[in-house]
Amino acid sequence: MTVEISDTISPAPRDIWQQVHGLDPYALVTQSPAWLDCICATGPYSDASRYYQFIDGVKAVLPLAAQRHMPARLANAASPPHGWGIGGLISSGELTPEHLTAIVADLARLPYLRLSVRPNPLSGTIWAATQHSSALVVPRRAHVIDLSGGFDVVWSKRYEKSTRTSIRKAERSGLVVDCDTSSRLVQAFHELYLSSLERWGQQQHEPRALTRWRGLRRDPLAKLQNITRYLAGNSRIYMAWLDGKPIAATLLLLGRNAHATRSVMNKELAGPVRASDLLHNMAIKDACEAGCRHFHMGESGASVSLARFKRGFGAEEHAYAEYRFERLPLTAADSYLRTIVKRIIGFRDTTNEEQPGHKETVT
């Protein structure tokens, strides 16, 4: 069956985008107009979102950011850019592989040097059934918790016993937990992030300057400040304190569905008292009380310990893919250069190793 697009508008009209976002039961904050505004305020991007109207009445929006001040043939466009969470399509009704095939054909015709789409992991099956021969497929893995039934069901039926034990231990450990919906804890969160960069670099045998440069390029302080500014009450920072010192923090994006997009900690202090377990438990409980359908725990990559941590909360693994439309083999070239640099500096990949405690997520 062929499904035709009757109209395409770029950038997507904000009123229609907001309407579609409200109608999609799987929509995330990172697929909203406010999130794209945050991206454009933080980095060198402009709004290149696309609205699709189908003849069968279905409306779809692809949040898309493109490098600004560059001709399209030399620019990258992404849904979303690296380090900005989950993108992909939202729709007013169920999208079929036929709908996606028509959209993919449109994307393949765009003149960008590279256009990438990282869709909602829950739509991985539909994307896999779509004809996208022109796209480079990059496999990914994420974990998502089904919140149906409410927190009592999630706690008793989906949490593993060991996770419940860790949370109870954390509650008895003297931790003080704070939840901020403004920008009050942004600076403390960022300082914890910087200390985490130091440890990650040491674990991976990476030069300190390179680790710090990569980390701040991905997550500068201005990014966190803009998230709290543009998302109003839809962002929350949960922070655990021990003896007056912040030792762990989690950034939650809360909308129709929840997304724990960043977690950082002082591993030496937070690990023994299971601070990260406690923070995630509080975030999951708040998401349930807000009526969220799903709680996204982000990318897990090849990390065994990270996947195990997420499964402890009842998160299910979802294999999906990112799709890249390239005029030149940029992904292959990037992979080759990274391999060369890693060999030169003696980079040590720790993603498959067993790590005591929770390894920070940097989705």
Blueprint of the fold:
Elements: E1 5-9, H1 14-23, H2 33-42, E2 45-47, E3 50-54, E4 59-62, E5 65-67, E6 76-79, E7 90-91, H3 97-109, E8 114-117, H4 124-128, E9 136-146, H5 151-158, H6 161-171, E10 176-180, H7 186-203, H8 208-218, H9 221-230, E11 235-242, E12 245-254, E13 258-265, H10 267-273, H11 275-289, E14 294-299, H12 304-311, E15 316-326, H13 330-345
Parallel strand pairs: 6-8, 13-14
Antiparallel strand pairs: 1-3, 2-5, 3-4, 4-7, 5-6, 8-15, 9-14, 9-15, 10-11, 11-12, 12-13
| Spatial strand order of the main sheet | 2-5-6-8-15-9-14-13-12-11-10
- Find the CATH topology of the largest domain: Aminopeptidase
CATH architecture of the largest domain: 3-Layer(aba) Sandwich
Uncertain runs are: 351-363
Mean pLDDT: 92
- Classified by CATH, the class of the largest domain is Alpha Beta
Between the first and last Cα atoms, what is the distance in angstroms?
A: 37 Å
**Percentage of β-strand residues:** 15-25%
Largest sheet: 11 strands, mixed
Instruction: Spell out the CATH superfamily of the largest domain.
Output: Gcn5-related N-acetyltransferase (GNAT)
Q: Rg, please?
A: 20 Å
Helical percentage: 25-40%
Shape, please? globular
User: In DSSP terms, counting alpha (H) and pi (I) runs of 4 or more, how many helices?
Assistant: 13
Structural class: alpha+beta
What is the total domain count?
A: 2
What is the count of β-strands?
Answer: 15
* Series of secondary-structure elements, N-terminal to C-terminal: EHHEEEEEEHEHEHHEHHHEEEHHEHEH
Please state the oligomeric state of the protein chains shown: single chain
